[in-house]
Design a protein that fits this description.
This protein has about 200 residues and is an all-alpha fold. It is built from twelve helices and no strands. Helix 6 packs antiparallel against helix 7, helix 6 runs parallel beside helix 8 and helix 10 runs antiparallel to helix 11.
Amino acid sequence: MPYFASILAAALVFAQAGEEPTIQSLFEAGKYQQVIDQVSATEEPQPADVYLAGQSARKLDPPDLDAAREWFGRLADGDENPWTFIGRSASAVVDGDSNKARADAQQAVQLGPTEFYAQYQLGLAYAESRDYANAATTFEKATMMDPSFAYAHYYGGLSYYQVKRIDKMSNFFERFLKLAPDAPERPAIEALMRSVRR
């Protein structure tokens, strides 16, 4: 019953604001099961929503890696296009194959140079292989392509932190906190920001 109560509460908040929750807004608020449920209930979901359902499965507590592979596999099937390689790269990240993740994400960017999620997935693939310098610049490109996607700022901030560019890290994290005030990572990011300002 608490699960359904949380769905109703979230729906009520968005209804009061005069808008329905988007898959992206649910994802950025840490409502991972709701993302999966809504995408599952959609007859022909958009590729971006399928991708966020897969990412949500990874973020469940505990993570449901089989479900993540299934969601990403839906993208990887069919004719080759940017989403095919985004799905393949995301699956490779789940499997811990950072070389394949990076190669497939690079192919997605090559096929879809203006596709935000290709750039975002490439950033995740670089971060998976601990190539934080390339991850940081890739996430920065992603934020220029779609400034409204909070997690591009979040991972950009983490990557800049790893390469000790605290100035850039702070800018990315500040934007992340504005875009995703209910994100589960908020307390940790606020604590990190306080520690680097001392």
